[in-house]
């Protein structure tokens, strides 16, 4: 694979957005088409998707002005309607809202929640005393992605892997030593209140933080539209896992220097975890990633993490995931990006596609 492209974005939010939009106009057009096709396959026509996406914009402008301004810049730079950029940035919320008709949200919406395998390594478990977090992000092969290299005066510089058109990022790290990765989760309560602060806005606010407590705050301070897992770390050796449902948060801390997570709730005392019903491989990946790292505690280094993230036990739905050529290609994921972050050095090693087939390329936060 040729690797992810990297785009330096500077200036005010609108200026950064314009540069983003101009640089990835074709990819944004492709992503819009991909998601519209997914919605249509799930029984939601294009007009309704555009209508519901547009309805979120005034709320975003009122509550998260900088995010909305950067989205508007992407729309201007790519010469696309703002509701199409909103669709990419708010796809979970638009998905939930599009199904709101007074009946129960269909389980088919769970198929639009991305999968992942994540891990965190405390200094005592690593070979060099550094703090590491890593992830295989499993998502639709058709979606176009790139690396945002954001350099600004109004917040920390950061690196984030994102989808073309999305200003929030999927995961990343900033110059203050804060990094995060995520995992899709699902409960029956997801989508009951789609107007709450959007998922990808919360991710961007993690990267805006200069302290670990202010990185945690956007995840837990307000109730959420849906479920998601956040593994957040700091270069000083701190790791925390936040399993979030709409009104519930479970706090998980490292054991033996490790944190790991896949696509099911580890703590099910207050939630009904249901994504593993459709994706039982989450249970296999969860125990597998933990076991592979536990046997290396005290000597874990980037090569250890690469071997772990390349593991293909239960192929094709292992830690390193491949498409299964199912009847529903739009629900068939592969590992879009594998990432290993050294929070002490401010470095990200990334692959474009399943890591067994790709070389990790290194990016440094400015």
Automatic annotation (TrEMBL):
Annotated ranges, domain Peptidase C45 hydrolase: 129-355
Keywords: Acyltransferase, Transferase
UniProt-recorded Gene Ontology molecular function terms: acyltransferase activity
One Pfam family linked to the record: AAT
Keyword Transferase on entry: yes
Official protein name in the record: C45 family autoproteolytic acyltransferase/hydrolase
């Amino acid at each position: 694979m040729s690797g992810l492209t990297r785009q330096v974005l500077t200036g005010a939010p609108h200026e950064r957005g314009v540069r983003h939009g101009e640089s990835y106009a074709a990819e944004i057009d492709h992503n819009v088409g991909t998601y519209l096709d997914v919605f249509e396959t799930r029984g939601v026509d294009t007009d309704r998707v555009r209508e519901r996406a547009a309805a979120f914009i005034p709320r975003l402008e009122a509550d998260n002005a900088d995010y909305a301004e950067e989205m508007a810049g992407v729309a201007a730079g790519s010469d696309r309607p703002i509701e199409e950029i909103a669709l990419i940035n708010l796809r979970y919320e638009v998905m939930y809202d599009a199904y709101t008709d007074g009946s129960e949200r269909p389980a088919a919406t769970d198929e639009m929640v991305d999968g992942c395998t994540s891990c965190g390594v405390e200094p005592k478990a690593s070979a060099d005393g550094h703090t590491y977090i890593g992830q295989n992000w499993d998502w639709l092969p058709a979606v176009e992605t790139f690396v945002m290299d954001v350099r600004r005066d109004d917040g920390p510089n950061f690196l984030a892997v994102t989808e073309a058109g999305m200003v929030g990022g999927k995961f990343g790290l900033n110059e203050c030593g804060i990094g995060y990765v995520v995992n899709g989760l699902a409960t029956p309560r997801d989508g009951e209140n789609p107007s709450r602060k959007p998922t990808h806005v919360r991710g961007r606010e993690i990267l805006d933080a200069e302290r670990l407590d202010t990185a945690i705050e956007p995840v837990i301070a307000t109730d959420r539209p849906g479920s998601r897992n956040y593994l957040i770390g700091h270069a000083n050796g701190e790791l925390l896992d936040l399993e979030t449902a709409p009104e519930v948060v479970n706090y998980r801390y490292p054991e033996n220097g490790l944190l790991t997570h896949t696509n099911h709730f580890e703590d099910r005392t207050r939630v009904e975890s249901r994504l593993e019903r459709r994706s039982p491989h989450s249970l296999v990946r969860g125990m597998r990633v933990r076991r592979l790292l536990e046997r290396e505690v005290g000597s874990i280094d980037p090569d250890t993490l690469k071997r772990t993230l390349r593991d293909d036990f239960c192929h094709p739905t292992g830690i390193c995931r491949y498409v299964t050529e199912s009847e529903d290609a739009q629900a068939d994921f592969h590992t879009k990006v594998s990432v290993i972050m050294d929070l002490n050095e401010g470095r990200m090693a990334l692959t474009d596609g399943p890591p067994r087939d790709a070389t990790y390329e290194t990016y440094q936060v400015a």
